[in-house]
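User: Just a sanity check before I run the rest of the batch. Below are the structure tokens for the first item. I only need the designed sequence back.
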């Protein structure tokens, strides 16, 4: 396991604020651009992004030489896919739709070798293709970053048990799916959704577990949520940044042409 994941885990345990972004485009050039952007970590979204398993590895290779930590959001709480992305060199996993302590324990176990867990053995790229196998195995259980995602009302109800699971390094909300499970899809300002987020952030803060909103919200809300303990901060996503930057550049050029005519 790389030194960068161990360094990030130390910062998380110290409750430092760290910054990251979503990578949703399954291309190593985009991954390399994001890896060079100065973020502490990047969430590689293989749940909703168009990633095949070979594309995941190509994007992980793009983080070579970067201090930015690649964390893969797997499609599901599936020990097979978790094993694959860790063997490919992911420094951690974000596990979606964790709704109970049992599911949280399963996610942690999938990231640990026996006897501590259930991870199958075959760390190809993660061990430098076998060149550093002993060193990798010695550190792997302690170094892998495990983040459950709370994105259902059932998970909110069970949040204390989920966060009391040994081996959890941070927690991430999924506000949109959470709103859907509450019957108010997309209404992220709805009182039921806001109260659920409050509850998760309070539970995380009480345990000194870094929390992530999962999305970027308006500035006033971001300030409030950060004050509540959301110290695992998403700054942007690749596609959103591309849309904003290209539209702003086009508008700027149109104004320049208008002013010059």
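Assistant: Here's the designed sequence for the first item:
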């Amino acid at each position: 396991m790389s030194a960068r994941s161990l360094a990030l885990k130390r910062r998380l345990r110290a409750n430092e604020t760290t910054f990251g972004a979503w990578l949703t485009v399954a291309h190593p050039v985009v991954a390399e651009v994001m890896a060079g952007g100065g973020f502490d970590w990047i969430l590689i979204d293989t749940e909703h992004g168009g990633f095949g398993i070979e594309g995941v590895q190509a994007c992980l290779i793009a983080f070579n030489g970067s201090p930015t930590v690649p964390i893969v959001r797997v499609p599901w709480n599936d020990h097979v896919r978790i094993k694959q992305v860790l063997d490919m060199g992911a420094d951690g996993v974000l596990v979606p739709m964790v709704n109970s302590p049992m599911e949280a324990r399963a996610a942690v176990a999938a990231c640990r070798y026996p006897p501590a867990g259930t991870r199958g053995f075959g760390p190809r790229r993660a061990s430098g293709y076998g060149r550093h196998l002993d060193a990798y195995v010695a550190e792997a259980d302690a170094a892998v970053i495990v983040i459950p995602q709370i994105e259902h009302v059932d998970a909110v109800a069970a949040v204390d048990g989920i966060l009391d699971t040994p081996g959890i390094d941070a927690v991430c909300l999924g506000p949109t799916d959470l709103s859907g499970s509450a019957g108010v899809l997309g209404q992220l300002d709805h009182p039921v959704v806001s109260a659920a987020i409050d509850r998760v952030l309070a539970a995380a803060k009480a345990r000194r577990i870094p929390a992530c909103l999962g999305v970027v919200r308006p500035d006033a809300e971001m300030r409030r949520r950060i004050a509540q303990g959301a110290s695992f901060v998403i700054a942007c996503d690749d596609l959103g940044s591309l849309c904003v930057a290209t539209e702003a550049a086009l508008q700027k050029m149109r104004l320049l042409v208008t002013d010059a005519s």
